[in-house]
Design a protein that fits this description.
This is OmpA family protein. It comes from Teichococcus globiformis. Keywords: Membrane. There is one protein chain. By secondary structure, the protein is α/β, with parallel strands linked by helices. It folds into two domains: 208 residues, no CATH class; 126 residues, 60s Ribosomal Protein L30, Chain: A (2-Layer Sandwich). Helices cover 39% and strands 17% of the residues. The strands form three sheets. Strands 3, 4, 5, 6, 7, 8 and 9 form a seven-stranded mixed beta sheet that branches. A five-stranded mixed beta sheet has the order 10-11-14-12-13. The protein has a two-stranded antiparallel sheet with strand order 1-2. The N terminus is likely disordered.
């Protein structure tokens, strides 16, 4: 049996807010379905007995004491998800269920480590994991991730994906177009507040599709969020270690946000708005996702004034927290905004709100332009600088006082979050303009 690879604590598993990259691939659902079907029928019969493991003097049952661990080699996505899921549940050190004799299980949506967003691959992983649970583990009752299910103190499955330098490697890679990704997942028991299982596998890059799901694709802005860090910190922990208390505190709000995202993507915008507003009223819920969601829902319902006020609250979040990345899309190779009104029609309003919310504050803004990893380094630096200067000029025209309080610089493709180089909506975050705040007196003294 292979030696367990523990997820490194500290910097290696903290969210890479300003680095990391993903490579476009393809989620081959028919191939995966066929592969998992064969695996479940031929090689994944239900275990016939229980093993045991002693921790702190307590005998905790394991489904199969000698269950194999996932390969440390890079696998196809279908093989990696299958092996990860089976090992995660087979090797879980979990107290027996109570009441009905079945464990309630919810899946808190899996995310991309670099961005905290859901994408085509993470959502596909959830679907396959759920199918494996339904087929192989009848004593787990899969419930929707919502406030009603959380009241039953279920087992929570969570996990993430990140680019790495090669198979068997834990720390995230900052290189664009990597050849390998790491996927990992944990089970957390809300009855005890502890992690009960943690497994890791590696995936070949050609199978990974980082295309954001609709809500994250449409969201106008991005920033690091405390709840995402707490989620990832929990995903880094080993069996017996506590779930991050920040994650537990915000769990109800995250369930409501998940309801809102599902409703938005189903076209039920009024219901989505209700969920976002409910989440914002909960501890840990007034995060950027809730504010992005309020903007998107009001915009979809044609409520222009409400959408503008909601975007203003998005800007306030970034200014309050010191950084905000706005997804201005430019024509490839130029400093001109994308000409399609469906994409750029709200940009004048965005710029107006950024200027109006920034001007009254005693802050200065660094506008950092970014580029996707296509083209030469020097060209990307010039292009990203020109785009940041375009945004700065628009802000100064709105509020001339910002002329002395803003600076533009181009960072080129040095800090990709997606890294595909597709130059479309998939890698919009790689062509972001990021607003970094600092107190003006400090800047002036430094000068």
């Amino acid at each position: 049996m292979q030696t367990r690879t523990s997820c490194a604590k500290g910097a290696a598993d903290r969210p890479a807010w300003s680095r990391g990259a993903l490579l476009r691939g393809f989620w081959r659902a028919p191939v995966l379905a066929a592969s998992l079907g064969v695996g479940l029928l031929a090689g994944c019969a239900l275990p016939g007995g229980q093993g045991g493991s002693t921790r702190a003097g307590v005998e905790l049952p394991m489904r199969v004491a000698d269950a194999p661990k996932p390969s440390r080699e890079a696998q196809s996505l279908d093989d990696a998800v299958r092996d990860l899921t089976v090992s995660l549940f087979d090797r879980a050190r979990i107290d027996p269920p109570t009441g009905s004799g079945r464990y309630d299980l919810v899946i808190d949506p899996l995310i991309d480590r670099a961005t905290g967003s859901q994408n085509t691959t993470t959502r596909g992983m959830e679907t396959r994991m759920a199918e494996i649970v339904r087929t192989r583990y009848p004593d787990f009752a899969l419930r929707p991730f919502g406030t009603e299910s959380l009241a039953q103190q279920p087992i929570v499955l969570m996990g993430a994906i990140t680019a790495v330098a090669g198979p068997g490697i834990i720390p995230a890679s900052s290189n664009a177009r990597p050849g390998t990704y790491r996927i990992w997942a944990v089970l957390g028991d809300l009855r005890t507040g502890k992690v009960v299982s943690h497994e890791t596998a590696w995936v070949r890059a050609e199978n990974v599709d980082p295309t954001p799901t609709a809500f994250f694709r449409d969201s106008p802005a991005w920033a690091a969020e405390t709840i995402t860090e707490a989620y990832l910190q929990t995903c880094a922990r080993d069996p017996g270690e506590p779930i991050d208390p920040r994650y537990l505190e915000a769990l109800q709000a995250q369930a409501q946000l998940a309801d809102g995202i599902r409703a938005y993507e189903a076209g039920r915008y009024e219901a989505a708005l209700v969920s976002y507003e409910a989440a914002a009223a909960q501890p840990g819920g007034d995060a950027l996702k809730a504010r992005n969601g309020a903007y998107l829902s009001n915009r979809a319902m044609g409520r222009a004034d409400a959408a503008e006020q909601a975007f203003g609250r998005v800007v306030d979040y970034g200014l309050d927290h010191g950084t905000l990345a706005v997804k201005f899309l430019f024509r490839p190779g130029t400093t001109a905004f994308w000409p399609n009104r469906e994409i750029s029609g709200d940009y004048p309003m965005w710029l107006r709100q950024i200027a109006e919310r920034s001007a009254p504050r005693n802050i200065c803004l660094d506008l950092n332009g970014h580029a996707s990893p296509t083209g030469a380094t020097a060209w990307n630096e010039r292009l990203s600088l020109g785009r940041a200067q375009t945004v700065r000029q628009e802000l100064v025209e709105q509020r001339p006082v910002l002329a002395q309080r803003t600076e533009a610089q181009g960072l080129g493709a040095s800090m990709p979050l997606i890294g595909t180089g597709t130059d479309d909506l998939t890698d919009a975050l790689d062509r972001r303009v990021e607003f970094i705040t600092e107190a003006c007196p400090i800047r002036q003294a430094a000068r």
